[in-house]
Design a protein that fits this description.
The protein is α/β, with parallel strands linked by helices. Helix content is about 40%, strand content about 15%. The structure holds S-adenosylmethionine.
């Protein structure tokens, strides 16, 4: 590749995963949520827009990936999306514009060379009737305020994908000068108790505490761990916040697509068990979970997903497949609403409103 008319950063493996998941999800978000709504996409920490890997291959950053997705989708469907790219560096935003020009992308994002927190708070407090907004928060550090995340989530149908820089946050946990920054980050001083812990207990404590705080204002919160390649050491966590189970479910499947079909950290089991063995284990785990929770009860498929999507590692497709399998073995009954397809055939698929009846042991075959 010859000399490019813009700057690039070096591409790391985990950035590739982050971008693949991000691009896959954004594509679906534009198609699904954008079908009936005007949308806002806000990239809070835009970066410079481009990367090169060790072989010199060019990759795009989040602002360019979004513009590309909008253009691609707009060829077939009309969508109304406002793109705002924030980066405190004017130079970075100019570089993004150079990449958009170079790639002949016609989308014209609104660029803001200011601090993210100030900008987003301005937007939320001054614009009335804000459209569903996706905010991507991808800083190098950790100056993110819980209060600001709460404000964003108060906008109807908003979502956040946030890069929680665990390594750095963990590194400075005991530094006195970050105390106020951490109180803002965690929305209180509950993080202090993890200073005395070590290793896994400390990591899990910090992450779960952060999630609990987010759960006080976001209905669904799921996190994904990304490691330094070949080091088996946590780099950062991607947190996804959404007020609809469907957002959480789709993000899980987008992540699984780039993580060998699963959302959880690839622990020791992945090296020893084949994929089909893992699928069997998952299915029996799901059966155990469902009967423990719903034995003798009935529940709509939508409620079942709402109850379990952000508290388990299972994907919507795995719940669906397990239920179908249980139905075939006459272990559960599914009342489909409506029972027939528009063409008058008996419905086989499982949809949101269908009622799943978990029989008592005595009723089961
Ligand atoms: C990790 S990079 C973003 C990468 C980008 N999301 C991508 O996918 O390529 C972080 C960016 O945040 C910018 N930044 C740092 N502090 C900021 C702040 N307070 N407000 C807005 N941008 C900031 C930096 O200039 C840098 O370009």
């Amino acid at each position: 590749m010859g000399e490019l008319p813009f700057k690039t950063w070096e591409y790391e493996e985990q950035t590739k995963t982050k971008h693949s998941v991000f691009a896959d999800y954004i594509d679906k978000w534009i198609k699904i949520v954008g079908k009936y709504n005007k949308l806002n996409f806000i990239d809070g920490f835009g970066g410079i827009g481009g990367y090169k890997d060790k072989e010199g291959k060019l990759f795009y950053g989040s602002p360019v990936l979004v513009c590309q997705a909008i253009e691609r989708i707009a060829l077939k469907n009309s969508r109304d999306i406002n793109v705002i790219i924030v980066d405190e560096s004017k130079e970075h935003l100019e570089n993004i514009q150079k990449i958009l020009d170079y790639s002949k992308i016609k989308i014209k994002p609104f660029m803001v060379d200011k601090d993210f927190d100030e900008t987003i708070n301005n937007v939320i407090s001054t614009v009335k009737n804000i459209a569903p907004t996706f905010v991507f928060i991808d800083p190098f550090g950790f100056k993110i305020k819980m209060e600001t995340l709460k404000k964003i989530m108060s906008v109807e149908k908003s979502e956040i994908l946030l890069n929680f820089m665990f390594t750095r946050i963990n590194q400075f946990l005991s530094a006195p000068r970050v105390e106020n920054v951490y109180n803002d980050l965690f929305g209180g001083n509950g993080w202090q108790i993890f200073k005395t812990l070590k290793g896994q207990a400390r990591e899990k404590g910090i992450i779960e505490h952060y999630r609990e705080q987010l759960k006080t204002f976001s209905k669904f919160v799921y996190y994904y761990k990304l490691e330094f390649p070949e080091k088996r050491k946590t780099y950062y966590y991607l947190f996804h916040l959404s007020n609809y189970y469907m957002g959480c479910s789709i993000m899980k499947s987008s992540f699984a697509k780039y993580n060998l079909g699963r959302v959880e950290y690839r622990g020791f089991r992945s090296g020893q068990l084949e994929l089909f063995e893992l699928a069997d284990i998952k299915q029996s785990e799901i059966i155990e979970l469902l009967f423990k929770k719903y034995l003798g009860k009935e529940v709509s498929f939508k409620s079942l997903l709402e109850d379990n999507i952000d508290s388990t590692v299972y994907l919507e497709s795995q719940f669906r497949d397990t239920l179908k399998c249980l139905e075939a073995k006459n272990k559960i009954k599914i009342r489909r609403i409506p029972p027939f397809t528009p063409k008058g055939r008996q419905r086989k698929a499982i949809e949101e409103n269908d009622i799943i009846q978990f029989k008592d042991e005595s009723d089961r075959a």
